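Why do we care about 3D structure at all? Because function follows from shape, and shape follows, mostly, from sequence. That is the central idea of this module. The next example makes it concrete: a single protein chain, its amino acid sequence, and then its structure expressed as tokens.
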Amino acid sequence: MITKIIIVLFLLGIVGSLFSGLYYLMKDKGTSERTVRALTVRVSLSVLLFILLMIGFATGVLQPHGVHPG
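And the structure:
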């Protein structure tokens, strides 16, 4: 259960950073570094989440599931 909460928090952080980048882009009209910083945070969080998911699958903490054929 704690892993699901961590994943959701990462996703919320990624979406929040994306929208803050859009806000800074509209407000500052491209004159500041805040947009670049917000998008850098988004990319960093996305890469970190991907790495954590791969570690979780490799260690068995996360179990993939899906529709089984048949």
